[in-house]
């Protein structure tokens, strides 16, 4: 009976260790997450005109990644080729995204509305994306 209990305990510890090793291995490279949020720009203490959609890429992995471009993914796999609004702190492309770092690019809300009108779609049908060198397109949740 004691041998069975010890064997079961050893099996549990071994499986836990194996699971941890798999998780660690998966996170050795870059792990890019894309999200969006809306911002009001404040520059030198003054509120800038207009509102902006921010497309943010976060590297949750342990290796750097290179972001080559960003934009919005529309229905039927159509993408926009976006140039960030000229706000302070916007990084040029391509951009090296270090481990545990985040970078954002901005698109004016009027531009988002123009795309919706031209395409006859709603914001809920649009998703932010970034292209990562060697990993392809990483897509966030719909704008909603």
Description:
This protein has 144 residues and is of the alpha+beta class. It contains 2 helices and 8 strands; from the N terminus they run H-E-E-E-E-E-E-H-E-E. A hairpin with a 3-residue loop joins strand 3 and strand 4. The model has no long low-confidence stretch (mean pLDDT 92).
Order of helices and strands: HEEEEEEHEE
Total of DSSP H or I helical runs spanning 4+ residues: 2
Overall SS class: alpha+beta
Distance between the termini: 58 Å
Q: What Rg, in angstroms, do the CA atoms define?
A: 21 Å
How would you describe this structure in keywords?
144 residues; alpha+beta; five-stranded antiparallel β-sheet; three-stranded antiparallel β-sheet; 2 helices; 25% helix; 40% strand; elongated
Q: What is the secondary structure topology, with strand pairs?
A:
Elements: H1 2-26, E1 32-43, E2 46-59, E3 65-74, E4 78-79, E5 95-97, E6 102-108, H2 109-119, E7 127-132, E8 136-139
Antiparallel strand pairs: 1-2, 2-6, 3-4, 3-5, 3-7, 7-8
Q: What is the compact description of this entry?
A:
With 144 residues, the protein is an alpha+beta fold.
